[in-house]
Amino acid sequence: MKNHTEKEQLQELRLELKRSKEREAHLQKENQVILNGLSIISEAQTKEDIFNGLLTVIKEFIPFDNALVLSSSNAEIFSVLASTDSSLNKLTWKYNELFYRACHKETIVLFKPSQTPHFTFDSKILQSYFTSVAISGIKSDSGYAVIILMSSHFGVYSTSTKESLQRFMPLIERAIIDIDYKDRLNALVDIKTKELKLSKERFQDFAETVGDWFWETDLKFNFTYLSDSKINSVPILSRNLLNLLDEELIISIINSSRHNQTAFNEIEWCPEIFNHKIWFSLSGTPFFEESGLLLGYRGTLKDISRRKKQVRDIQKSKSEAEKANTAKSQFLAMMSHEIRTPLNAILGLVDVFKDSSLSGNQRDWLNQMESSAQLLLTIISDVLDISRIEAGSFTLDEQVIDLLSTISNSVDFFKDKIDSELINLNVTVSHKIAKYVYGDPTRIAQIIFNLVGNAVKFTEKGIISVNIAQLDDGLISISVSDSGIGISKKALNQLFQPFVQADSSITRQYGGTGLGLSIIKHLTELMNGTITVESSLNEGSKFTVVLPLKETTKKPKVILHNDVDISVKRMRVLIAEDNKANQVIIKLMLEKQGHEVCIVNNGEDAIKEITQKLILDYYDLILMDVSMPIKDGITATKELRSLGVRLPIVAITAHAMETEKKSCLDAGMNDFISKPIRSIELTQLLASIDLR
After folding, report:
1. How far apart are CA 110 and CA 131, in angstroms?
2. Quick check: pTM over 0.70?
3. pLDDT tens-digit series, residues 45-69
């Protein structure tokens, strides 16, 4: 009995050993298959290859008819990542508790999947696919993935299937991860490919739009890329950039850039192959490999013929404009000379007759004559001013001035011109106003004169107020308001335009050129100031000028006024003047003051007269007209100075342009006096000469 028992035990041990060896062999085979599967998956190039490799390995141990790999990035909707049957690719799956368990390391076998809502389908064909189901899955960084094995036979999968799938999990995980990675990589490649294609299309569209040629060369400037093999329909025969260029200077610039590994930009080139009629702009920049080694150059070639033509047209237009502006200035200077010359005789005779015995009516007529002539002179000065402003040649003569005196002199001029019973002219000055400031006295006076003059012109009766106030930061406000006819809102927009008045009827009724306000605006801006206007039709106007005038403790030079008694010693004066009327007027003025006068008709006669009496040191002063026939005053002065004549020479000019005055001083003249010459101005000039 004992022996029998031992034999049975021995037999069982042998059977167990045999089963153990069979299991060991089976596991060894599974492991080898898994290793082979991993190798296949690693070498796979596409997700289909990975999926097929996985199924080939699994099918040796687990039977199935079809298989699916589902994926989801957000654990909501699963889509088909890979399948053995294309009819399954359109299926979508909602996240459920089966997928949850599968993705958390549980293998599931369904004996009757049709009894679960997750595997219920309207199609009987699809339903037949899922008679038996085995499910496994993983959770990775990219999301969730589930593999489903399907059989059309009932009861194919069992507990042993779960165990086999569990052993195949490393292979399944690797396969699913690789399938997911390959899928995302392919999607990314597709996106980048589309972007690259779009970029190329965009690049080509831009290139065609801008009309540029794009090129790339190696280190020897052999072309490695050309966006077009033709330039303006002319074939590019040379494959080397430098061989295309036919100018040594351009080639040397490019070679220098290559030597220094720097870019060359906007090199203008007019090639011989286009008969030097088409201009190009050549630019290039070096490109390097990651180690910093220079590989070649990339750049563009632009057709700049249109731009060059535009530049030439602009230069031509500018030249023509400058010529026109010069011609205009010359015309205005000539017109100024031609008008001032007869005005000199008119105003000169007015000064002479004023000192003679006249009746009351005669004196009134003389004053009206003087006012009319003075108005004509003002118009000429305005036209010259606006011309110089437009030409950009207008400059300020800043000096120390008595501001209140300057303003007062301008306002006082109108006190005798208005009827005090109809118009009340008030002047208000802030006690904070600086007494002495830096500024151009003539131009400040011109601003005040024009503003107050306009107020007087357009106010028949009422009040005109001039207010001078000190603002912060050294700013001084000068406002002139009136209760006159006012300005409409529409007219305000063009008020400061030259030759423009608020209404054409104003010119007929009140006169004027429409230049005053335009000149004021330009003068104000030249002084870095501002001008504003407030006005309503039939309610009056208010003009406000704000100027930055710097205060100073220095005192201005003493200026001689008309009411100052000036004593001048007796002089011998030589007058060089071709106009007979002006000869008579200037001679009368000088002789009336006790001076001895000699007259010649041109500069050549003046030189002869001076050289003949040079030894005797006969003359004390020469009054030299600038514009004379035979020899003008500038040329005559230069010759006299070259002969060593140091006698004071004062220019008589009707041009009144700064360039003309500068020419006089540059020629060696000591001073100048503008036509029309007034008696007081001539006296002041002689006094200043006498003080030398």
Report:
1. 9
2. no
3. 666 777 777 777 788 888 899 998 8
